[in-house]
Specification:
Blueprint (H helix, E strand, L loop, with lengths): L3 E7 L14 H12 L7 E4 L2 E4 H7 L1 E7 L1
Antiparallel strand pairs: 1-4, 2-3
């Protein structure tokens, strides 16, 4: 039995940005940019660690991979 890989991106606060995981890493990246648009009006992401500029937001997030056996 082969393990199924799923992907998501963690916010700077360590929370999945999507409630659903993605089967292709590029889908997770595409979703990130949709998610980031939510913060364009205020101009930054408000983290538990302080404000993060939108240009720096992707580098403070982490792509993760889940393996399901």
């Amino acid at each position: 039995m082969e393990a199924t890989k799923e992907f998501n991106i963690l916010s700077p606060d360590g929370i999945n940005i999507s409630q659903e995981n993605f089967y292709i890493p590029e889908q997770a990246e595409e979703y990130f940019f949709q998610w980031q648009k939510r913060f364009e009006i205020q101009g930054y992401y408000s983290s538990n660690k302080g404000r993060i500029s939108l240009k720096d937001l992707r580098s403070t997030c982490k792509k993760i991979q889940y393996l399901h056996l």
